[in-house]
Amino acid sequence: MLVLFDNGTPRTLARFLIDRHMVTEARARGWEELENGELLREAEAAGFEVLITTDKNLSYQQNLTGRKIAIVVLGQGRWSLIRHRVGQVVAAVDAATPGSFAEVDVPYE
User: Fold this and answer.
1) For 38-54, how does the pLDDT look when each residue is reduced to its tens digit (9 = 90+)?
2) Which residues of the chain have a pLDDT value below 70?
3) Residue 14 in contact with residue 21, Cβ under 8 Å?
4) How many helices (H) and strands (E) does the chain have?
5) Predicted local confidence at residue 62, as pLDDT
6) Which residues have C-beta within 8 Å of that of residue 89, sequence separation ≥ 6?
């Protein structure tokens, strides 16, 4: 799958996905300043299948009905916390289907 990392997603996470997925960062596409609605439209138009973000409010701010892109929300953006949940993140990406939404809880430890 073609996976897009939003600005808050730690790039180290890509190491755990690149054996099965193509990963690109929003800033590499020049999309770091786009608001959520614009980012979702651009990502879908470019053929991205999954967006990984740390924006927990995305599902409240955007109407996700009818979206082609799957969304995986990380509970935190700090790698030191996410690394303990890498298996759950990878599983969420692997299970993503068009328009699906998954949240990976990343508690402070």
Assistant:
1) 999 999 999 999 999 99
2) 63, 109
3) no
4) 4, 5
5) 75
6) 13, 16, 52, 72, 74, 82, 104
